[in-house]
Amino acid sequence: MARPRTLYLLAYNVVQTCGWTLSLFWILANAALTKTLDGAYSSASSLIGFLQLLAVMEVLHAATGLTPGSVTPALLQWGGRTHFLFAIVRRIPEVQELPSVFITFTAWSISEVIRYSHYAMSCIDVCPSWLIYLRYTAFIALYPIGVFPGESVLPTAVWLMYQALPLIKGEHLYEAFFSSFPFSYYAFVVVCVHDRQSPELCF
Q: FRET partner for 176 with CA separation of 20 to 30 A, picked from 3, 125, 141, 199?
């Protein structure tokens, strides 16, 4: 009989696999039906937001030793994506229909379908060799995917943050929230955009 730990991890990874598969389907179906890339956020943001919030469990998994790995990288990746999704894209409607959102959401969905399905099948020791190959090679294309054609050599999530900078500054985004602290949210995003050596801070 499988141990509770195995059953739990299997269930968690199956839920994530199904969720990201559904988000990918919604994104691509919307693009096919509308013949535009503008609707990625409206079609899948709620589900992607839920899955991203649920992924905080992976930080807890690492912290409690339920899964191997360090807490710090898991926390940075989760925090970076969550910040990008909720603090910038969700908060600024003007960026929600940019092609950068479509490309970023599609890349996230494909990479997470591969990653979580690999984890799920590894829980029951039936992971096929082709999936293992994809798990450790697909990121080579998916991580830097969506170099914005003819506009920038920045990954799409960072490029979208760059496009959001004038809006963040113009709307004084979160300025009131941080008014009691020696902190500028606009300056923080500028650092994220320019610090390409630490992309996990951005996405």
A: 199
87 closest CA partner among 145, 160, 21, 142: 160
pLDDT of residue 159: 82
For residue range 100-111, list pLDDT tens digits in order: 899 999 989 999
Residue type, 84: F
Backbone phi, psi, residue 129, to 5°: -65, -35
The confidence score (pLDDT) of residue 144 equals: 65
Rg (CA), the chain: 18
Letter string b/e over residues 90-101, b meaning 16 or more CB atoms within 10 A of that residue's CB? ebbeebbbbbbb
Q: In the structure encoding, which two tokens stand for residue 184, read together?
A: 């500028």
CA diameter of the chain: 59
Residue 90 Rama label (left phi>0; alpha psi -120 to 50; beta): alpha
This prediction's pTM: 0.86
Segment (H or E) for 168: helix 156-170
Query: How many C-beta atoms surround the C-beta of residue 23 within 10 A?
Result: 25
Q: Please give the Cα distance from 65 to 71 (Å, whole number).
A: 9
Statement: residue 154 has pLDDT above 70: no
Residue spans of alpha helices (H) in the chain? 4-34, 40-54, 56-64, 71-82, 99-123, 129-142, 156-170, 185-194
